Amino acid sequence: MAKQDEQRFTMKMQRKLAVLFVIILIAFFALSVRLFAINRDNGEKYKKQVLSQQEYDSVTLVAKRGDILDVNGSKLAVSQKVYNVIVDSKTLNGNDGEYLEPTLTALYSTGISFLYTQNELRDFIRQNPSSQYRVVAKKQSFEVTSPLMDILNNPADHPNIKGIWLEDSYQRQYPYNSLACDVVGFVQGDNEGIYGLEEFYNDSLNGTNGREYGYLNDDENLERTIKPAQDGYTIVTSLDVNIQSIVEKHILAFNEEYRDAHREGPGSTNTGVIVMRPDTGEVLAMASYPVFDLNNPRDITGLKIEMPEITLSPAGEISGEEGTEDTESEEAAAEENAGGENENTEEEMQARMVLTPQAGDDIASYGDAYEEAYEKAKMEALNALWKNFCINSTYEPGSTMKPFTMACGLEEGILTGNENYTCEGVLSIGGHEIHCSNRLGHGDLTFSGALEKSCNVAFMKIGASIGKKTFMKYNRIFNFGLKTNIDLAGESRTDTLVFDESIMNPTDLAIGSFGQGFNTTMIQMATGFCSLINGGYYYQPHLATKILNAEGATVRAIEPRVLKQTISTETSEKIRQLCVNVVTEGTGKSARPAGYMIGGKTGTAEKLPRGTENYLVSFIGFAPADDPQIVIYTVIDEPNAKEQASAKFATVLTRDILTEVLPYLNVFQTEELTEEEAAELAEKQLLFSNGSTQEEEPEEEITEEETEETTEGEETEEAEEEKTERKIEFDPETGYAIDPTTGDLLDPETGRPIDSTVSDLPPDNSSPITFVDE
Amino acid sequence: MFDYTLLFIVLFLLCFGLVMLYSVSSYEANLKFQDSAYYLKKQLFATVFGIVVMLITTFINYHIWDKVTIIAYFVSLGLILLVLTPLGYEANGARRWLDVGISLQPAEVAKVGMIIFFASVVSRFGKRIQSLKSTLFTIALAVPVALSVLFITENLSSAIIIFCIVLMMIFVATPNYKEYFLIGAGIIAAAAVIVLLVSKGILPETLSYRFSRINAWLNPEKYASTTGFQTLQSLYAIGSGDIFGKGLGQSMQKLGFIPEAQNDMIFSIICEELGLFGATAIIVMFLLMIWRFLVIANNAADQFGALLVVGVMAHISIQVILNIAVVTNTIPNTGITLPFISYGGSSIVFLLSEIGLVLSVSRGIRLENK
């Protein structure tokens, strides 16, 4: 053993140990301060960070959007399961980048169409090593994705393929493409329905997304819990794909037939047809023109876009200007040019030159401002294309209002049906001379004759006898000015477009009685007309009849709903007979399909501004006459013809549609066929039986020819009839009187030949009002 | 004069450590082994074994170790070299373990070995240690072991710990200050230069993976997905704990965000679950333990016993300081466990054997006073 002293832990050592202890103490204290500082400076930020990281662990399970079916179960809109390909750069970059190339090669050897090229994706993965979620391919079908699925399902066979996974998604598909496009609507973005049924029933169609997440239970065991997605409801509608097809086929045929006939473009600015059941308010078909492909609603091929102007500044810079109305821009351009020629120097003219680029030009080359203006114009054109003419457009209904006016008078006992009217072609009301369609007068007319000949003078007298109070009461009864609340998105409000009783003058009443001076929508007219002829029951118009859950069980059955009684059964019976008379004796003859008796009323409304010779022609009718099963309303806005004012455009289209629809609905023929009709029908029925199974182009061509022949035949027949009946000749298309000496059409207001008077008419509305109607 | 205070502190930390270990590891244990108590069971076994070892060493007269000091040195060195033989195996990307029936980290053995060896050497030198020559000679004796830990087992942190233990023991045994502060200043300056070079990109990261950790240390958010991930997640855990924490077992960061949180990063989960309050309480417990070491060393019967205690004190305090410094991103990330609390069988057994040595020394105090 060594000496005790040497073995002892000396005082010096104790002191140094104390120093060491103090150093350790300081270190501990410093670390405590550091802990405190982390909490104080970044506590809130880190708390949020921790929470946001947690969400990463849960996965959204996408719900399937419900289908839209027609009355027979045909699928108008379906959701197809598709897959998004997701890349996890973090995993892909692992293992010193050994996974990257094999994975990329495997990805690009499948048939999947990626959003990036192979090189772009490689760069992305290298530059964003922390990215764990990048969609590299969207909405790929099962067929295309299945090779990749095989790889991912067998990771053992493909050890170097990492960081790829598939995400379920759904793609909205419309098997009938453009059929009933306005009614069905489409979806954008994340299953947000826009327009039509897709928008109206968006909440029912969209299910609730599910979620898969992991959590620790009470025993600290990790549990993966799946809250399954709740698939959306399926909407069953009353729409009948077959009837819809027939309607759209004939609308298309009409618009092709009259394409470029008078002005450039299709046969009409717009053509709308509604077919509905008067006894339930169910819509069987609703179509308008032009149509668009629901699977590709943003396709602008063939769409006329108002190109914005370009103003060239002296420096050669191009600035975009928003396009205005076509005529205005042309005027402006003309003005600019005229000014340049007369006063301005050449430089100034160059400086203020206005160009209108042509469609197909490289829009981007004109600069950002122009591109923006162009995009705006494009969206306007698309919105116009997407909207549903049948519920969205408001217009003056014209003479199709006349049965409503009569029903009002009959229901109130003001009219008996035995009245006689004398038409001298003009009536002075409230200081305005208002002319009949027949400027020279219809002469003596019976009550029924007033409707058959669509005499404006007689109806002005009827209006005066009813009085504005009763007239407006019935306007409200028929819901004019109110939405019908049909189950489609985008129905227009008309509450500001109807007469205001407090300021309504006798002239308003006079023109209102034959359907001018106030606006309606097609669905308002059709729904009101249903109640006129079904015994007076005003049904809420609707498309959906049933809402089914994902398992096919009915969640809600939508029964026909009577909202009110508009008129009595007796009055309804009388109106029906009067409407049949219109078809047998009057202006609606050309609407009657061979073998059937129908009732209805034509309409030819001059559009605002008056004097521009733009007309909206229509026919509203029901079939068959004795037991109405359908109501059909056909509206043609600005038919492409020199003389637009002929309801025949609408009646012939109606006839073509009914000729096919009535046999499809198993309505028996009641009328005897003439030889001509029998021959025509024999051909058509053959056509029809083929057409119901498959609609091939050659057949449609035959139909078009058929339509042409029919139209011509009817026109001559009609013209002859009118000649024998009246002393004065009328133009069969417009209803204008023909000057016996010159053969010109005479303007009913001025008595001068039409062509010379057009420009003389003052543009404002305070001038004497002219209405032309058949 | 058996030191019950120290024993109580150690038992408290062991129990607390087991509770925290279960809280932290159960999620990952369940995922990996379908047994949430997998890590707890292994640690419990090691702890019980460690307590037995501690009791044995407590009741062995510590002077025995003075006699086997040369053996201790070569056993330490030999075990490290054994890692190179087929007995050694690799885990977590580093070859640090020996498979001798149970898994054993030679670096842990070396720490105890060095404490015994240098306590013996310094006490034998007596006053001669005060000469610069013998001081440098003594320090040089530590170099082979430290270097073999560094290069054979590629364990920088253990090498630093071993070197620091030796340095602190010699610091206490010698009367001068200036030299040590110069050494300290020199080390800090060298570290600063390296950090500067790496951060300016003069020393490429590819030179060593440790250099890339320096960048991650300086700017963890920039390297959030790679080298900075663990540190950043640890900071999130600490920062989200607030004053009283989310409650025991309520950590969110342990759910896969801090990988193997039961090892080096357990302190951050303590901060998250028990807050600043809980973290400070643990730091105070360690401080109390170190204070007990101070008291025992000052009253030790002889210099050898006192230096043994100083060595243990140095070992535990360095590990605690470095571990907390790493989880708070005060220094670059390097794998250092928190004594008595982090998961690791070798570590706990050898730490408890060191406590046994200290308790043995404290028993000797009573004999002296008689």
Shape of chain A: elongated
Radius of gyration of chain B: 21 Å
Helix content of chain A: 25-40%
The residue fraction in helices of chain B comes out at 55-70%
Q: Give the overall pLDDT of chain A as a whole number.
A: 80
Overall spatial form of chain B: globular
Percent strand of chain B equals: under 5%
Query: Major sheet of chain B: size, sense and barrel closure?
Result: 3 strands, antiparallel
Strand content of chain A: 15-25%
Low-confidence stretches of chain A: 1-6, 320-344, 686-728, 747-752, 754-770
Distance between the termini of chain B: 11 Å
Explained architecture:
The complex is a heterodimer of chains A (774) and B (370). Chain A is an alpha+beta fold and 774 residues long. Chain A folds into 4 domains: 81 residues, Penicillin-binding protein 2a (Domain 2), CATH 3.90.1310; 94 residues, Penicillin-binding protein 2a (Domain 2), CATH 3.90.1310; 423 residues, Beta-lactamase; 77 residues, no CATH class. Helices cover 40% and strands 19% of the residues of chain A. In chain A, strands 2, 3, 4, 5, 10, 23 and 24 form a 7-stranded mixed sheet that branches. In chain A, strands 12-11-28-27-26 form a 5-stranded antiparallel sheet, sandwiched between helices. A 3-stranded antiparallel sheet of chain A has the order 1-8-9, with no helix packed on it. The longest helix of chain A is centred in the N-terminal third of the chain and has 45 residues. The N terminus of chain A is likely disordered. By secondary structure, chain B is mostly helical. Chain B has one domain. Chain B is built from 13 helices and 3 strands; from the N terminus they run ααααβββααααααααα. In chain B, strand 1 and strand 2 form a beta hairpin. The termini of chain B are close together. Classes of the chains: A alpha+beta (774), B mainly alpha (370). Chains A and B meet through helix 2 of A and helix 1, helix 7, helix 10, helix 11 and helix 12 of B.
